User: What shape does this take?
Amino acid sequence: MKYLEQKPGASWWTKNPRTTLYMIRELSCVPIAFATLTLATVVILPVLAYSIFNSPPLLNAANNFTQSDIFKVIMIIGLVGAVVHTLTWLSVMPQILPVKLPKPAQYIAYLIFLGIWLGLSFFILQFILV
Assistant: This one.
């Protein structure tokens, strides 16, 4: 019964590169969540408050904060987290396909998924957000 009583150490995930990559991917959601909460608090809530209470000073304060350097840094950190999260997810996709592919084909599939992601991102930036 000693086998069942063994507990992994605090750094169990650093011993295998796959689990390390998984933990980095999972931790990359923290800056994404922080940037999303900041964006919601600073942009969306003041706009809703302005539409409900018609309060221009609140909207002006939110506008001033979105032009500050700290807001830009928070958004860049969130963007880096989103890129890490996406790239690690795309690197896992060829490995979890129902069809088992050899390593070169997995690399090609990764590049195809990356191209699709970049194409969709470009489409969203050019045609939807403008």
In short: The radius of gyration is 21 Å. Residues 15-128 form a domain with the 3 helical TM bundles of succinate and fumarate reductases fold (CATH 1.20.1300). The helical segments are 2-5, 17-27, 29-53, 56-66, 69-92, 103-128.
